[in-house]
Design goal:
Elements lengths: L5 E10 L2 E9 L6 E2 L4 H5 L19 E4 L4 E4 L2 E2 H7 L2 H10 L5 H12 L6 H7 L8 H15 L9 H27 L12 H10 L10 H13 L7 H10 L5 H12 L7 H12 L5 H9 L20 H16 L5 H15 L1 H5 L7 H11 L6 H22 L31
Antiparallel strand pairs: 1-2, 2-3, 4-5, 5-6
Helix pairs in contact: 3-18, 6-7, 6-11, 7-8, 7-18, 8-9, 9-14, 9-17, 9-18, 10-11, 10-18, 11-18, 12-17, 14-17
The structure holds carboxymethyl coenzyme *A.
Length: about 425
């Protein structure tokens, strides 16, 4: 990756009476950064930024978020245009290679992905080791890590050809693994991929078809699934992507790094929020109880939060939530479902958007607020929601991992700390120790 940063002046910092000069760098869009790489060398101090609220961990050319305006761009293209006009594999190509593919580039890419959709038969034996009631994310993290044992040839991450093959394999196999996770959890036989179908169609078939019956794909549901994949494909340096970059920075096998991303995504503050959001909407149950839950969310002595609300970066409506709401309406119409949960969601959104607490803190619905309603209507249990997020985000993780490996400025990720524990002291023999509790 060739750097696109340009110098934009110098920042001056007084540290213990000494003036330190640090370069200010400009990107293409978004705030400038102060390059603090030489700070420790110049002044012997670190910066402290738990949660990375003011820290750019890398230069990246893949995704840009303007949180104040609610804009999300992949390689410069707005997410709503991609969701409207594109398909998931086309967006995958865009994220990975930096431009929209020509017809022949796309045909070639599509072929390369579909030829890797099957799994080694030994992978299936891993599943029988899991309890049937294991959380699907636990099975996914385990089996994705296990894939690295099947492809030792991907170990040399600095070989661009090996890396590309490993990326194609991972994009292709992720839906097959995720569908197996679901089938295993409900005790149905695994369904092999059908390479004549599109990415989303194939995935839905592997999840919902059974050998005893004919399966007819529904185009509205296929389109909704494809859109959900597009909307979750990448989101710059979020927790799971940063985890993948950090794991990969040590030179780990790419599938081991992706497995670390799956683990990080699982938490309710990140990818697990879609599961938590639907559970919350179910718990609320009807639109007349919404006020009570809004009060709970505002109460500082109550740890309850509105799941699917708020975002570290977006201080405006999450552009993905808008597309998600439209898709929810389309899917429920197609299936002729009158889901009271959608009414609860809309009532909750309306009240929260007018409430001073939420307005002041710029808390808006995020991508997870409506996705659960759609996935529930398609037929997925809540525990599978984050798995679907992981299938989509795999392309973001792989693109970002690839970029980090190609970045000449990349070094092993090794944050520093401010130590506030015990000062140096001498060892005390057990007979002489005094209880500390
Ligand atoms: N409900 C009620 N209050 C909230 C919420 C919420 N969902 N989110 C933030 N706040 C309040 C928070 O209590 C704090 O108030 P105060 O200033 O009075 O202490 C203020 O808003 C700022 O919150 P914060 O925790 O400092 O913000 P953060 O940037 O660290 O957290 C977040 C971002 C997404 C973890 C948080 O908004 C949250 O927990 N939301 C619910 C979980 C969720 O929907 N997560 C999905 C994120 S989008 C998908 C993804 O990226 O994976």
């Amino acid at each position: 990756m060739k750097s696109n940063m340009t110098p934009a002046g110098m920042a001056k910092l007084e540290v213990n009476g000494k003036t330190v000069e640090l370069p200010i760098m400009k990107g293409v869009d978004g705030p400038d950064v102060i390059d603090v790489r030489t700070l420790y060398k110049q002044a012997g101090v670190f910066t402290l930024d738990p949660g990375f609220t003011s820290t750019a961990s890398c230069e990246s050319q893949i995704t840009f978020i303007d949180g104040e305006q609610g804009r999300l761009l992949h390689r410069g293209y707005p997410i709503d245009q991609l969701a409207e006009n594109s398909g998931f594999l086309e967006v995958a190509y865009l994220l990975l290679y930096g431009h929209l593919p020509t017809q022949s580039e796309f045909t070639d890419f599509d072929k390369k992905i579909t030829m890797h959709t099957m799994l080694h038969t030994q992978i299936d034996s891993f599943f029988s080791g899991f309890r049937r009631d294991s959380h699907p994310m636990a099975m996914l993290a385990g089996t994705v890590a296990a894939l690295s044992a099947f492809y030792p040839d991907a170990m040399d991450i600095h070989d661009a050809e090996q890396r590309e093959l490993a990326i194609h394999r991972m994009i292709a196999k992720m839906p097959t693994l995720a569908a197996r996770v679901y089938k295993y959890s409900i005790g149905q036989p695994f369904v092999e991929p059908d390479n004549n179908l599109s990415y989303a169609e194939n995935f839905l078939r592997m999840c919902f078809s059974v050998p005893a019956e004919r399966y007819a794909p529904n185009p509205v549901l296929t389109r909704a699934m494809d859109r959900i994949f597009i909307l979750h494909a990448d989101h710059e340096q979020n927790a799971s992507t940063s985890t993948v970059r950090l794991a990969g920075s040590s030179g780990a096998h790419p599938y081991a790094s992706i497995s670390a991303g799956v683990a990080s995504l699982w938490g309710p503050s990140h990818g697990g929020a879609n599961e938590a959001a639907l559970n919350m909407l179910r718990e609320i149950g009807s639109a007349d109880r919404v006020g009570e839950y809004v009060q709970k969310a505002k109460d500082p002595s109550d740890s309850f939060r509105l799941m699917g609300f708020g975002h570290r970066v977006y201080k405006n409506y999450d552009p993905r939530a808008k597309v998600m709401q439209e898709t929810a309406n389309e899917v429920l119409d197609e299936l002729n479902i009158k889901d009271p949960i959608l009414d609860v969601a809309k009532a909750l959104e309306k009240i929260a958007l007018e409430d001073e607490y939420f307005v002041e803190r710029k808390l808006y619905p995020n991508v997870d607020f409506y996705s659960g309603v759609i996935l529930n209507a398609i037929g997925f249990p809540t525990t599978m929601f984050t798995v679907l997020f992981a299938v989509a985000r795999t392309i973001g993780w792989l693109s970002q991992l690839n970029e980090s490996i190609e970045d000449p400025a990349a070094r092993i990720g090794r944050p520093r700390q401010l130590y506030t524990g015990a000062g140096q002291r001498d060892f005390v023999a057990v007979r002489d120790r005094v209880s500390q509790s």
